[in-house]
Amino acid sequence: MSGSCKLFLSSGLFLISFKMIISASTGFTVSIYDVTSRTVSLRWPKFPDAFSYRVMATPVNTLGHSLLAHFSDVTLVGTLSSLAPNTIYSVMVDAIDKNGIILAEAQIMQLTAPEIPMIDQAYSKLSSSITVEWAAVSGASSYLLTAQDGEMFIETIVTNSPGTVTGLKAATLYKITIRSINTGGRSQSSPSKKAKTVLAAPVMIANSPSYNNIVVNWNAVYMAVGFSVSIMRSDGLGSMLKENTTNNSLAFSSLDPGTLYTIKVYAWDINGIPGDDFTYNQRTRPLAPGDVQVVFDSGSLGAIVSCMPAEGASSYSIAAYSNTSKWNFTSTSTSCTVSSLECGAEYSLTVVASNEAGSSVPTEAVIFKTAPCAPESITIEEKEPGNLAVSWSDVDLSDYYVAFVKSDDGLEVHCNTSCTQCLFQSDCGFTYFISVFAYNKAGQSPLGDIFNYTTAPCCPSNFSPVFVSSNTVQIIWSPVRGAEMYETKAVAQTSELLCNDTATTCTFSALQCNTQYNITVYSFSEIRGSNMSCEPKQVTTAPCSPEILNISKDTLSIISVHWHASSDGAMYTVTVKGEAGRWHCTSSGNSCSIHNLPCGSLFFINVVATTEAGYSLPSYSVPLETDPCCPADLSVTQVTQSVANISWSSGTGAKTYIAILESHKRQASCHTPQTSCLLGCITCGTDYTVTVKAVSETGLGSDCIYKRFSSSACCPSGVKLYRLGNNSIRIYWRSSKESINYSTDLYGSKRNFTCISTGALTYCDITEIPCGDVYMVAVSPLIDRNRSKLAFCPKKMYSGKNLKGTATVKKMRQHIWGNKNVHIYINHVRLILKTCQ
Ligand SMILES: *[C@@H]1O[C@H](CO)[C@@H](O)[C@H](O)[C@H]1NC(C)=O
Ligand SMILES: *[C@@H]1O[C@H](CO)[C@@H](O)[C@H](O)[C@H]1NC(C)=O
Ligand SMILES: *[C@@H]1O[C@H](CO)[C@@H](O)[C@H](O)[C@H]1NC(C)=O
Ligand SMILES: *[C@@H]1O[C@H](CO)[C@@H](O)[C@H](O)[C@H]1NC(C)=O
Ligand SMILES: *[C@@H]1O[C@H](CO)[C@@H](O)[C@H](O)[C@H]1NC(C)=O
Ligand SMILES: *[C@@H]1O[C@H](CO)[C@@H](O)[C@H](O)[C@H]1NC(C)=O
Ligand SMILES: *[C@@H]1O[C@H](CO)[C@@H](O)[C@H](O)[C@H]1NC(C)=O
Ligand SMILES: *[C@@H]1O[C@H](CO)[C@@H](O)[C@H](O)[C@H]1NC(C)=O
Ligand SMILES: *[C@@H]1O[C@H](CO)[C@@H](O)[C@H](O)[C@H]1NC(C)=O
Ligand SMILES: *[C@@H]1O[C@H](CO)[C@@H](O)[C@H](O)[C@H]1NC(C)=O
Ligand SMILES: *[C@@H]1O[C@H](CO)[C@@H](O)[C@H](O)[C@H]1NC(C)=O
Ligand SMILES: *[C@@H]1O[C@H](CO)[C@@H](O)[C@H](O)[C@H]1NC(C)=O
């Protein structure tokens, strides 16, 4: 079929090109303006001088006779009829003049339309269409179906039977015709058939007023006399319900809840012919969900609401309301979390299941109470130190309260009460954070304000005042909780000292002596002020420094120190201190004595008062000098008959000495820094008293030693020498006193001679004196029971020449140091004291 169609098209192309060549040669053309199964209508232009036109159609490729027609010169169109359908004709038009001569010629190829088809039947299955059946005609490539309703045509081209005309009105009578079509053109219309479209479908809406009902409504349908409605579950379960009605609505009951139903409705006409269907899917509403539960989320104002799922429900709506608030929530889940409920409220809660059909009836209301609101008006009082009273206002719907008290070191305590007050123990220096919660069965109230309370700072206690000097006390303590500053007070009866510092130490100086101070360290915090209950510590300052009034030397070896005693109950210690050592005496009175201080020393004396509180400052020192020490020994030697040498050992502390030689008649003395001195004017054979006084640098003197001293016997006077004969001499003298023994000594360079005379003898003889020598002769009294002799009696020179007794006078002069007044002259007869006192 498609192959022949292709061939046909190519031969058509060939014909067109052929026609163009003809036209080009003469400028005369022919065109076709209508073709049917048996006719071809042509048009050509007027050709000059043409008298008539001749048209001839000859079938191409098939046997058959040609058709010929003539047209006058005014006729420029012509129709050839009685042609064979579906046949290619070669159509030739000749322009002929009056002489019968062909002036011009044009040719065209044309296929005739196929045979007219015949309608077998026409009927309507749908309200908008009519279906037509016919027998196929040869050469037809398609068919044109026409439905006519009064003035209105509706055409449809179809390729084969049966064909359907659509876009028709429902319940309407139509006249139906058909034409066949090929490339050449269209056949004439077939004889018509009448057909009526069926009734239109009713337009239906349905709804489910409750979980087991569906109500359907539809509109009226033109020409309808009744309606048929059917319903069945869309999932095919169960049976179908069918009902006929003339009404425009219908209600189905006893349906399954939440189930999708498929509903069909159609109308029928007076002949009972059913019209178009209308299908509608409708779901029934769900049942109310069961078993609604509310579980509180403790601690927050939230709850979890859950229920059993309802068949066919697509969402669940939870609505809750209290006296003052409303709340709702929709979810696809059967459980949902409700948050931000009002505290302390009674709620009524219902759940509704919904689907596209609508909502179920609400469940029975669940009444519940939310957790109580946070307690308000919280007050914190520290009625007495160590006890915090926390109180709050009563809260609706609460069963009991728990108050939490957390100290800033993290420790937390709580109290559980149904009253509105709790007592807590508190410590000094802490900050407590306090929160109160109310509870009921629904749980805990939300967190309200957190209050804080700072207790008074603690008191520093582990301190002890330490005297760093007798009038300065230092206090060091450990820092205590809560203290921002310390105020340290030292209070005495008449005065007060104060230290304000953040440091944990304070020093009070210039304290009064012998005074009791109450020292208190108060801690201070800005929020609570000072902790005034801090305990004082008592300190007593050291006694006042005593004052030495006088020092008396009671006897030689005892001194007494007197002071001004100003501190009650003090013990006084006197210290005597010097290079010689230290001495002490103590007394609770105002004087004490020291015995046996060494002589000749310088001391400093002070007094210190002592009490339990300590030592006073020492008094100012008073110097004390003891009398110089006496020389330990004293000796007196006679240097000459009238001069004695007094010598002594040195005494400690003595700077000078006064030596005194005293007889009942006279006295001689010397004052010397030395430890000896010469004293003249002694008379021989006299008893003396010798005294030495030691004198210190400051003039302090001590009477020391008394010694008795007797001067020696006098040297003889009138010594004379007489030659007795052969180398012997007699020596004479005058005795100063009777019954004294004398020793006569002769000193020579070769030999010495001694002669002792006893009794009343006043001469002595010495024999066998070698001559030619010079001798010194001395006559001295024997002393100390004749055991020694005086050494200082004058000596006489003797030589052989002057043996007759003429003595050579020798003059000796002696200057004695220390006593310019004493000059001693010695000649051969006597000693002359030039000056004597
Ligand atoms: C409803 O009407 C149609 C057409 O008249 C008929 O065929 C059918 O049996 C009827 N059904 C019922 C349930 O009446
Ligand atoms: C049609 O249905 C409506 C509502 O269901 C009802 O009120 C009415 O009476 C019915 N009419 C007939 C003719 O059944
Ligand atoms: C809330 O309602 C309850 C009972 O209906 C009532 O007793 C209560 O006073 C109401 N509360 C408020 C704040 O209105
Ligand atoms: C849910 O709440 C919204 C506003 O919060 C309100 O418009 C709506 O009507 C409520 N729905 C129900 C079922 O209460
Ligand atoms: C407080 O007491 C109630 C009952 O007396 C008890 O149920 C609750 O657990 C207690 N709460 C605390 C925090 O101790
Ligand atoms: C304590 O409470 C006061 C006032 O309520 C607030 O200003 C202060 O910051 C709080 N202190 C602490 C440590 O939270
Ligand atoms: C002051 O401190 C003491 C001891 O540290 C403490 O016991 C007392 O509670 C404090 N005083 C006050 C008013 O808190
Ligand atoms: C010191 O404290 C004691 C006891 O605390 C008190 O008896 C005494 O009067 C106080 N002395 C002074 C000077 O305040
Ligand atoms: C010490 O501090 C206290 C508390 O701040 C104050 O009252 C007092 O005046 C201060 N004293 C001195 C001497 O600064
Ligand atoms: C020393 O002082 C005391 C007390 O004042 C007095 O009794 C005594 O007489 C005084 N002694 C002398 C030597 O002044
Ligand atoms: C006196 O005697 C002392 C001690 O024997 C002696 O050292 C001193 O020189 C003597 N003085 C004179 C002037 O002889
Ligand atoms: C004589 O005596 C003197 C003094 O005692 C002495 O110095 C001297 O040596 C003596 N001469 C002789 C010869 O013994």
First-to-last CA distance: 205 Å
> How many β-strands, per DSSP?
71
- The average pLDDT is 85
Radius of gyration based on Cα positions:
87 Å
Shape: rod-shaped
Residues in helix, %:
under 10%
Low-pLDDT parts are 1-24, 802-837
Main sheet makeup = 5 strands, antiparallel
**Unique bound compounds:** 2-acetamido-2-deoxy-beta-D-glucopyranose
Structural class: mainly beta
| Tally of alpha and pi helices | 1
Strand content: over 45%
Pfam families: fn3
Keywords: Signal
Protein name: Fibronectin type III domain-containing protein 7
Organism: Python bivittatus (Burmese python)
Q: What does the model show?
A:
The protein has one helix and 71 strands. The chain is mainly β. Strands 24, 25, 27, 28 and 29 form a five-stranded antiparallel β-sheet that branches. Strands 32, 33, 35, 36 and 37 form a five-stranded antiparallel β-sheet that branches. Strand 3 (52-59) and strand 4 (67-72) form a beta hairpin. The protein is rod-shaped, with a radius of gyration of 87 Å. It starts with a helix and ends with a strand. The model is unreliable at 1-24 and 802-837 (pLDDT under 50). It binds 2-acetamido-2-deoxy-beta-D-glucopyranose (12 copies). The site of one 2-acetamido-2-deoxy-beta-D-glucopyranose has 2 residues, from loops. This is Fibronectin type III domain-containing protein 7.
